[in-house]
Design goal:
about 325 residues, alpha/beta, D-Maltodextrin-Binding Protein, domain 2, 2 domains, five-stranded mixed beta sheet
Length: about 325
């Protein structure tokens, strides 16, 4: 083969390789660089999805050099487990799962909202927690449904030993309640709304606001311990995305609901009803409450509950598992 032919063949091969790499390579950020993938877990409700829906629509991931691979989960404890195995980098948890980062199994990187979606529900005719004695009660263990049930029982001078408690995942509770396989449940909206379509006369025996003087019910975004300690750049960029999405959600509540509905492929009215059980916290308020110790008090109050409920042996300083400094300093970057 002549030198000319060799050079032509080499050039053709180089072009083919470049085209192949372009076809299978990663995405690019707004500056033309490659994007770093973030494995992110979420729950399919307004609390767990709204910021991800906003970040996707507003291209916030690309803005910060990231690409989100979002995976849906039914509860927080499953995400904490996935963080521990490295299958997730970040995730979302409700208040019932806060004992897991408090026990050292993950880090809280951002407080999200204050929830009021949890209920103890029962069949028509049951009007008090005391009437649940000996009844079969479904609950997703380690979740906010578990938390609201435990608090309601304590208030009534009862424990789970007074009931027939069955650990169930969220989807099972919906079908089990509708088919009368359980008498009551520690559960949450919007899933309760689904149950109401089949059992419209169910009763609500307890709700978050019944215990607001005792404990707050924040939701949060969490990260794997190794991610926070070993991938600080990725963590800081992710927090920056969450902060910008929070600012958009506060300024554009209706659009946030619409974007969430679009991401979840559900009616807007359903998400609007779900959002009505949520107190959105503006990012500047989260900064202030982090710095003045309010969030630390929330976490300590929850830890008191978890120790009493047997989830934690002892309390630990919230600063060991809430990376408040990372959250607030992201505002300056």
């Amino acid at each position: 083969m002549s030198v000319a032919r060799k050079l032509a063949a080499l050039a053709a091969g180089t072009v083919a390789l470049a085209l192949a790499l372009a076809g299978c390579g990663g995405s690019e950020d707004q500056a033309g660089g490659s994007l770093q993938t973030v494995n992110f877990g979420y729950i399919a409700d307004y609390n767990g999805t709204s910021l991800l829906a906003i970040a996707k629509d507003q291209k916030l991931w690309e803005k910060h050099g990231l690409k989100a691979d979002a995976k849906v989960f039914t509860n927080g404890p499953l995400q904490i487990q996935a963080l521990g195995t490295g299958d997730l980098d970040f995730g979302y948890i409700g208040p019932g799962a806060f004992w897991l980062p408090a026990s050292g199994q993950a880090k809280i990187i951002a407080i999200n909202t204050l929830g009021n979606a949890d209920r103890v529900i029962a069949r028509s005719g049951t009007t008090s927690i005391d009437q649940l004695r000996g009844k079969t009660v479904g609950v997703p263990e380690g979740t906010s449904g578990d938390m609201i049930l435990t608090l309601a029982l304590q208030k009534a001078g009862m424990t789970k030993k007074d009931l027939k408690v069955v650990n169930m995942d969220a989807s099972t509770i919906v079908s089990a309640f509708a088919s009368q396989k359980i008498d009551a449940a520690g559960f949450w909206y919007p899933a309760i709304g689904t149950i109401k379509k089949q059992v419209p006369d169910l009763t609500e025996l307890a709700k978050n606001s019944d215990f607001e003087s005792q404990v707050s019910f924040p939701t949060a975004f969490v990260a794997g311990n190794d991610v926070v300690s070993g991938q600080k750049d990725k963590t800081e960029k992710t927090i920056a995305v969450l902060r910008e999405a929070m600012a958009y959600r506060s300024a554009n509540p209706d659009q946030a609901i619409e974007l969430t509905a679009k991401m979840l492929s559900v009616p807007v009215d359903q998400v609007k009803a779900d959002a009505s059980n949520v107190k959105v916290l503006p990012v500047d308020e989260l900064d202030a409450k982090t710095k003045d110790g309010t969030i630390g008090k929330w976490l300590n109050g929850m830890a008191d509950y978890f120790v009493q409920a047997g989830k934690l042996k002892t309390k630990t300083d919230p600063k060991t598992y809430y990376t408040g400094d990372l959250f607030t300093t992201a505002a300056a970057k």
